[in-house]
Amino acid sequence: MKNTGLLLAFVFFVSGLTAQSGWTREPGQGYVKAGVQGFASDQYYNLAGDLLTTSQFRQQAVSLYGEYGIGKRLTVIAAFPLLKVNSFETTEAVAGIGDLRAELKYAILKGSFPVALSVAPELPTGSRNNYSQNKTTSFERINLPTGDGELNVWTTLAASHSFYPFPAYVSVYGSFNYRTGFNGSAFRNQVKAGAEIGYQIKGKLWVNGRLGAQKTLGQPGTPVDFIRGDGTEYTSLGFGAAYSITKKLSLTLEYQNYLDLIFARKNLYTGHIFSAGISYEWKRAE
Amino acid sequence: MNRLIFLFSAVVVLFAACKTETIFIDSSLPNGTFSAAKSGTLVEQNGTGTAGMVELGTDEDDVQFLRFGSNFTTNLGTGTVTVYLSTSENFVADPANGNPDLRQVGPISKTGESYFKLDPTAAAKFTHVILWCGSANIPFGNAALN
Question: Which residue of B has its CA nearest to A50?
Fold first, then answer.
């Protein structure tokens, strides 16, 4: 995976809409979340940034996400798309697991202004080629992989601040995605930055807003492997809510879309991404 | 016994006399020299790496072919790329009326040189070659035939 929004730009995969923060988990503390996501769009920005209307692309995903504190300053994080179902309106659906993201997060600063550095390799566990048969033309098929086939590594520096006792926080982050390639194609590296603000309502409901932007570095090769996200750029805007059912259990809802505010959309299907999930958090190993 | 040997020998001689060399003719390829009547250079669309020359012409039997040159490239890792003849550089589908502005030639499976036999011969109204991804409905490239 390469984007936290749509994984592969043309073949696009909705992955976890998880944000980056400066906080880490204390030893024995943990958080897990299971979610479902849905996306459909016929609006595709090509590598030049031109908007095309195509057949509608659809994706549904089921994902798992977890964090666990393994030391005073170290947290391990994993994000795994258990299932991705991809199709165009013109084709049969194809499914597979996605790419596993394993992250090690180190707390550089703790306290009221936490800063953390994380390194997150994304392993090519997903289906690298996944051909979907056209419904009407027997010889037509299209490759809708659920993984990009490469090992890439995200390195992220994030900082946060809580305004406690005022129930609000802010986080900012910057990331570098070192990409390798697949099947002879070298993928270009990417940078991403973003910010998130959150506010708690009546002790039960957290709401947040996010802004992110991604840029591709370097000159394109020939041809560009656009179905694996090479050349993908965008500005993303998202909103989320988490409602506490109990002290440990919460329901989550998230929404994300794309715009041209900081970096214009390129090599990207754009549209509404909705996700819902249930999360469980514990303060010590139980 | 001698009669049997004679009979067997006669059969062998008979089969040897009837043996002929088998020559396979691939009717999808031009017979003899291919002569181009029109040609064009592919223009890339949507970052697909499409490039190379296409030619419309005939072989020594006057059978028409569309030829992709040895310098032809496109991104075939995305799935099927289908070749069309078109009356313009734009893919204008009109299935209700039999797609008068398009003629489907076939899927292209490799980069480099390829031939597509055109039977019946292409109408003169077709002035362009289009490479098209039918599942996503996006163009990969086109060439004007001049």
Answer: B46
Report the candidate in B53, B116, B131, B45 with the shortest Cα–Cα distance to residue B86: B131
- Contact yes or no for A88 and B77 at CB 8 A: no
Token pair recorded at residue A27? 């030893």
CB contact burial A139-169 (16+ within 10 A = b; e otherwise): ebbbbbbbbbbbebebebbbbbebeeeeeeb
B133 contact residues in A (CB cutoff 8 A)? 142
Cβ proximity of B78 and A142 under 8 Å = yes
Closest CA to A246 of A280, A277, A276: A280
Handedness of CA B118, B123, B129, B134 (dihedral sign): negative
Residues of B in contact with A187 (CB under 8 A): none
A45-66 pLDDT per residue, tens:
998 899 999 999 999 999 999 9
In 3D space, the residue among A141, A225, A133 whose CA is nearest the CA of residue A188 turns out to be: A225
Q: What is the distance of C-alpha A159 from the center of its chain? A: 19
pLDDT in tens, B62-79: 999 999 999 999 988 888
What is the chain A residue with the closest CA to B132? A140
